[in-house]
Specification:
Four copies of one chain form a homotetramer.
Chain A lengths: L26 H10 L7 E5 L5 H9 L4 E6 L2 H14 L4 E5 L14 E4 L6 H11 L5 E6 L2 H11 L3 E16 L2 E6 L3 E8 L7
Parallel strand pairs in A: 1-2, 1-4, 2-3, 4-5
Antiparallel strand pairs in A: 5-8, 6-7, 6-8
């Protein structure tokens, strides 16, 4: 049972997750990513480079009957994913310790793939994704480097339809009685779906 | 029944709404707004300055058993809200044609208030909101002008806890074979909740 | 003689200044600030909250025959301003150790005032500025907090003409073979000039 | 003689230029571009895809003894460059009507090259630039599309040193008594200089 998040929308505050020193997709970027993934009931979802599992956990809470595979190569990350899944009652998240794309091969075919980290092997990962993804599938890549952005666009080329948004969030932080606007690094959220598939649903 | 959005996350693409010439909260800002509102099952929600109703419609789809009051002063806007509610099967949205804050007075007390437009009367509106909002309530104000930002912060002062994020979204637009990054205007999303209330849930 | 910057445009890289732990206006914001100040030959300029003196130094290099007063309350800052002025040959920069607005009172009347820091006393400072500034004067305030932004706009009101731009700069940083886009905090650059004065020059 | 801009810093307001329907680099981006170009006395500068000539005009005003070649393929653009050069007294700007890179070949070798538009032929242009640029030269590319950004980075590769900044400017626009923050499209400013050359000066 979910003890900690009783709301019906995503956007769990970052500080409620265990995160150690693992980078985490911040909450505003996370809700946009989940939105772009067009999650729906019963879907199978791969979360590649899952980090703390924050995306997988929120996806699971939003998707009744779904199956979620959180793929993460670091043992410390995997431990955090398990801890965060338990904390928020995301029982449908399965942790896969291993490196993508090899770790993806035995997984059930996905409806949705979210790629938060690629360990420098984005092209290889997307090749496996392209072979295994189910019809009407969607892929969402979060890029924080220009190389990941360019690599994703190169891969999708004209075979896939794509949308790119760059999201920047400045957050107010109290400094005495003032509010400093503190910038978060911009994230490119690249959504891709196969030509001929229906965008809206 | 909902025919047009079969997904379990918010983020209906802007172009799926009827919008005429009424300004609309763009989809990425909308999902962040819904997230900050911490919507939960059975809640009563006021959507003030509802415009096309896009926020009210998505809130309704995300909130089982909720009640939604979309307050809008223009007749054209009210027509759009009805059209969009019907299109997406958001039967729990009730349209209130009238000007805030007067139109708010007869409504049932809300758990959540989302203010997308205030017609220059933000202070008056927030006074009514402060009187009527239920315990553990939250208010989210979307500001596109510096005056609305300052007015909201002045009102909330130290009586409420607040969080301010400024969200900017650049979207790629095809120009021949190139992708121009086109900027959307930044939106300040101001969340407020009463001192002593639990933020996370 | 200027040994270190042989170019005729502003924009000295941040790392060429001595800066200790004092906050510094980053180079892209600095060139925009100097531009908005409409510096011209022979002008008298106050740089209030001068920090490392980076603004005063670049202003001096760009303004033949000008006089520059760098007002800074911290002794460490004053030392840095002297060091940076010497390094870049900005002999026309005079350091004033003291707190604004009191430290401003004995200074010669300015054509231009640049306010990079106000120590929480922006209103008091602007009152002195308004009394002392020469005809056709301009004021530029760099604000990183919402309170400084609101305070400046409140002060200028309708008596002054104002322009506000918010500048955000993301800078690529090498991470292995990738370029991470790293966000700098946004700065509001508020320019003000008296009603009836000619904007362009 | 320069009648219209009596200041010693760049940043002529956009509305003081004649511009017809030709796209123009906005003033804040322009001053950053000039800064990144490290203009210095006596330099020869190519302004490729000059548009209205705003960059060439401001560069000329900032660079005593310089020579400026404004390359523009449209006849209407060339007319505007001549008009703007005359208006601001930028007598050192020479207009070259023609398409880059062919139009670049007969020009004197440059110290600096600024590329504001490439007509889809960025790679060809940069090849000519690389052959002709003088020692200690610098190139600045302003990119508004992801393709120009990727193309520039691909070309410079490891042979050149590069810096990338992405600049976003929101500008306040009066709407009644309120200030709407209106976003300008983000511009990637890519600076490149040859390995082994001194960055700062």
């Amino acid at each position: 049972m979910n003890e900690m998040w009783k709301f019906s929308v995503p956007g769990i505050p970052d500080e409620l997750f265990s995160r150690g020193t693992v980078p985490m997709t911040r909450e505003e970027i996370r809700v946009i990513t989940l939105s772009k993934a067009r999650l729906g009931p019963g879907m199978t979802v791969w979360d590649v480079g899952s980090g703390t599992g924050s995306i997988a956990v929120e996806a699971a809470l939003m998707t009744p009957g779904g199956k979620f595979w959180a793929v993460e190569r670091s043992a410390g990350g995997c431990r955090l994913i398990r801890e965060n899944s338990a904390r928020f009652g995301a029982g449908s998240v399965q942790v896969v310790e291993g490196e993508a794309p090899e770790a993806l091969v035995p997984l059930p075919r996905p409806n949705r793939v979210i790629i938060g980290g690629s360990g420098g092997r984005l092209g290889d990962i997307l090749e496996v994704v392209e072979k295994r993804i189910l019809p009407a599938g969607r892929v969402v890549v979060n890029a924080v480097t220009l190389e990941t952005l360019a690599g994703a666009l190169d891969f999708f080329g004209d075979r896939w339809q794509t949308e790119v948004v760059q999201v920047s969030v400045n957050r107010s932080v109290k400094m005495g009685s003032s509010r400093l606007m503190k910038a978060g690094n911009p994230v490119y959220v690249i959504s891709a779906w196969e030509r001929g598939e229906d965008l809206g649903g």
